[in-house]
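Thread: "does anyone have the structure for this chain?"

Original post by V.I.:
We have the sequence but no experimental structure in hand. Need at least a predicted one for the grant figures.
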Amino acid sequence: MTIAIDKQVSALHAQLAGRADENRRLLGELSHEELNVGYAAVISAAFFELARRRFIRGGKPASDAEIIEFVAEARGRTTDAAEIIDPEVAELAINYVLGKLPLDAYDDVDGNVGFRVKSLLVAVMVADEDFSEVELDAFMTKVRELALESLQ
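Reply from O.Q.:
Generated one for you, C-alpha cells below.
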C-alpha cells in the first residue's frame, strides 16, 4: 500500500496556520484510507516531534509532574479540550514518546481516542511554540519526513 501524504501534511499545516476552511476542504478530499492511515501518521509524527521538543531537555525526559501539569493546563484551555483530552491517554502518549514506557505500553489505547488526544495536543503545543510562518514550514517538513518513515 502506497499512500502519498502531501495532502495530509497540507491539511495539518492549514489547521496549524489557522486556515480552517482550507483544512476542512483538504480533509474532505481524502479517502477513508488516506485519513485513517496517512493523516493518522502525520498527526503521530507531529505529536512525536512536538512532545520531544517540549519534554526533553539536555537529553533527559521531563518529570511526571511536569507532564501532568501540562496535560491539566491543556485540558483547561477549552470545554472541548476537557472533553477530548483523556488525561491518562495524554500522559501515556507523552511518556511513551519520551521512551519512559515499554514498547507495548500504548497497545491497549483505543486508536480513535489516541488520535483525538494527539490531534488536540498537537494544536496546543504548536500554539505554545508560537511558530513564525518559516518555522511552521520547517516543522511541517520535519513532520512529513517522520510520517513517510513511519509508513515504510
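V.I.: this helps a lot. The CA atoms of residues 121 and 140 lie 16 Å apart.
O.Q.: and The mean pLDDT is 94.
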